[in-house]
Amino acid sequence: MTATETGARRTLPGGSTALVGEVPELRPGRAQWILDRLSHSVVWIAGLLSVIFLLAPMVIIVIASFNRAPALDVPPRQWTLSAYANISPALYEAFVLSLQLAAMAAALSVALAVPASFWVARTRG
């Protein structure tokens, strides 16, 4: 009979025991903790850089829209609202239509999502 068949146990580093021949459960040590924290930080940094990459052009356009000069000048030397005062009627109508569609989409999504969330909470709870 072998030690495994008789149930012989051995003491592992850290004080735990295991059957002879059994592979002990690996516990994450300091190196694993450092890798976990590092990967978590890398994901957060990548996400933050992605958001900055997506939002930076929009911020620059909004800032440039207050410029008195016809060419792109960031930061503007003279601030003005003249670009917004001289909006063409077609552009204004398109803007109003976009706002109306956004309001209808928001209202429809709330009207569908609230009852759906109650249904999910009641059927799974």
UniProtKB/TrEMBL annotation:
Membrane topology value: Multi-pass membrane protein
Localization terms from the record: Cell inner membrane
TM segment ranges: 42-66, 101-121
SUPFAM superfamilies: MetI-like
Keyword Transmembrane helix: yes
The keyword Cell membrane appears for this protein: yes
Keywords: Cell inner membrane, Cell membrane, Membrane, Transmembrane, Transmembrane helix, Transport
Domain of life of the source: Bacteria
Primary location group: membrane
Signal peptide: none
Protein name: ABC transporter permease
Biological source species: Blastococcus brunescens
